[in-house]
């Protein structure tokens, strides 16, 4: 957690909830809901003990996957609404949190450069958000498939299978980004109706050139969907320490996905999908004989594939953005700290005799591998795995890294001096998405070197 008195604000939330419920008069809880306090205490103690079987996602020594605790504001906001348990499928199930959802989605749309006439909503995950975007893609081009880079998240190939449409993986260049020549060659065939572009791939953090993909796709009457589940919030840094062109182009793309439960400091699950053209809402139309009855306004469930959704997710995000707005100096500073950490660690790795940088970091993911002797893919693979395992299982001073698998072709483009004696190798991968990583990089680097 960060420097916020969580206990104080949780107590405030509970007190306000009790005050609100008291306005409706007292009643006696049903006896079937009663549990013995001693049994409750015992079960809770067992739960707390079992929860210790987790990695320390909260600590900067954890630099493995895209995991970190939510901001205290998100916890307090989520709990405040969870005690009421609203359902944002319909205004009848959550009028207050539905209004909050519209407000936060509007803020996200503005961040990406969409006009006020967009369509969007929160989802339970980036996977569902991408499913919705591809569902609309299929509805608009039922006889054409979807193209995505070979480094794109696996959800796209999976969702193409779910939707029964053809997926077309596009090769990547030497920086792990979609190969534009290969994309254009594919589009010439007329089989692709939508191109997925990823500004921030989940393995390497590579920023695909949204603006260039958009130019090519438009020449072939193809839509462009932006998978910003991981990287989308870095839009806040565009024009400062990131090239603005890919990010500024998102506002001209047809749809975009972003995950507040990654860089938006929210608990799982909280994704979001937005469409530039609100008329795509016609593909969601359905009728329910009992759900929508207190308002003639459009309900969120009428523009969503999901039905029941936690209104608490909207409340958590709403409160967080009240404190850390979608500006460079607000939430942007949280992301900037992680990116500075990645850039500085890359510099330290570059100067090291024991390590080699696999690829220059573009966001907050650093990839690297031990310089082995002999310098072969099989030796790199074994050394990377050993370092990860030794670091995370150390009884004293553990560090938590992850690995990414790279093909021999990818190595050949980046590190031709590594002998390709096998088809590929794992490299070490560190995600520095906690801002505290900026002050912990020296400690991580020194501990990593001690493991080699």
From TrEMBL:
Lineage, highest ranks first: Bacteria, Bacillati, Actinomycetota, Actinomycetes, Pseudonocardiales
Protein name stated in the entry: Aspartate aminotransferase family protein
PANTHER family assigned: PTHR42735, PYRIDOXAL PHOSPHATE-DEPENDENT DECARBOXYLASE FAMILY PROTEIN
Ligase as UniProt keyword: no
Homology family: Belongs to the group II decarboxylase family.
CC cofactor: pyridoxal 5'-phosphate
MF GO annotations: transaminase activity
Organism, scientific name: Lentzea flava
Keyword annotations: Aminotransferase, Lyase, Pyridoxal phosphate, Transferase
InterPro entries reported in the protein's UniProt record: GrpII_AminoAcid_Decarb (IPR050477), PyrdxlP-dep_de-COase (IPR002129), PyrdxlP-dep_Trfase (IPR015424), PyrdxlP-dep_Trfase_major (IPR015421), Pyridoxal-P_BS (IPR021115)
Pfam families: Pyridoxal_deC
